[in-house]
Amino acid sequence: MNVQLNNFNSKREAILNSTLLLVKEYGFHGAPMSQIAKHANVAAGTIYHYFDSKETLIVELYIRTKDQLAEAILEGYDESKSYKDRFFRFMINQYNFYIKNESAMVFLEQYINSPFAKNFPEKDSVLFKEKVIAFFQAGIDGEYFKKIDPRLLGPTIRGTLVAAANFRLSEHMIYSEEDITEVVQIVWDGIKRQ
Amino acid sequence: MNVQLNNFNSKREAILNSTLLLVKEYGFHGAPMSQIAKHANVAAGTIYHYFDSKETLIVELYIRTKDQLAEAILEGYDESKSYKDRFFRFMINQYNFYIKNESAMVFLEQYINSPFAKNFPEKDSVLFKEKVIAFFQAGIDGEYFKKIDPRLLGPTIRGTLVAAANFRLSEHMIYSEEDITEVVQIVWDGIKRQ
DNA sequence: ATTGTTTAATTGAACGTTCATTCGGTTGCA
DNA sequence: TGCAACCGAATGAACGTTCAATTAAACAAT
């Protein structure tokens, strides 16, 4: 298509990636635009060519990161498998994404607990909502799960997976398939119809 | 005892309370010392009479808030009850604390996911560690729970309760005993020995 | 009780720094 | 030649922190 599009994306992506890393390391207030620019090898002014403000930069980074999470979760989706198998695949994918992208996980957690999330509740990943949350809804409708509000189910699952991923990461442990399955089993046992 | 002690504490407490509220509302970077001072009805300089820096103010607020959480969790502790009953009491207490102290919950979650927590891992509530975490350890030792590392168990439980409290708070719903028990049941079903 | 003395608490303007953002100018591609 | 991408010094606002000055409290001596 367009060569310029590559340039456009490469600088833009570099800015987003640097923001993710620096926010993870130093928090929102500890990641100034000047440092983000330096880390991304662009001029400070260039950031404002792609983003209106620091605020929109953060919000767009959130959407992009959650899109990536949704894509990772959906990887290897197989309609022919049982609901439980698909659920475990979802959970293991999410767990692995967190392990492999610690900065993404930390950023997402920081964002969710920050004023941003409350100020822009409509700014979110469409893919995540339409595929991942819909899958959980199907689990409730299909009576695999307890009758819980799906908006409660999502954060509950996230909480456990984040806890597990944080633990593994802080211990610098190599994670085996059993480790992951054990954690997912906690989630499943908690929410399944007894 | 000492009249001065009252004054000492009242200003200090006012500063801590204002910080909690403003950090919850605007985040760490959105809560400047000048605003904290104004909200607490003290001069900017007064804050530095009680705290070395903004950083130590935040850290000391974290410890105080987690102490308060620990006290709330331990309320009505009855050694004669069964382990499961005591566990449910712990969980319901924690859930209620979150519901009644939204700013404390939000602050704790923000803190845990911020660089502060990684930079000062030794700065934490002694009460929480010696009573609450010890209780979970006893649950593992006593074979009520799956064989999980207690450092994994804690955040897992927290994740679910925070998710539930956030949900209830965002929906402005009146919480009934059944609501709470339903959530705790999720946690219990997840981690108990099957 | 009163007065003088010392110490602690409190103030808020001032300081130096850092920050997000701007903008006039430059480059490089179409 | 035109236009979007890009630069980076400049700007002004906002920030955390300091400090000289003021007030209040505690204590001691009378």
From TrEMBL, chains A, B:
Pfam short name (any one): TetR_HI_0893_C
Assigned keywords, A-Z: DNA-binding
Residues in the DNA-binding region annotation: 32-51
UniProt domain HTH tetR-type: residue ranges: 9-69
UniProt-listed SUPFAM superfamilies: Homeodomain-like, Tetracyclin repressor-like, C-terminal domain
Gene3D superfamilies membership: Tetracycline Repressor, domain 2
InterPro entries attached to this UniProt entry: Homeodomain-like_sf (IPR009057), HTH-type_Tx_Regulator (IPR050624), HTH_TetR (IPR001647), Tet_transcr_reg_TetR-rel_C_sf (IPR036271), TetR-like_HI_0893_C (IPR054422)
Protein known as: TetR/AcrR family transcriptional regulator
Organism of this sequence: Pedobacter panaciterrae
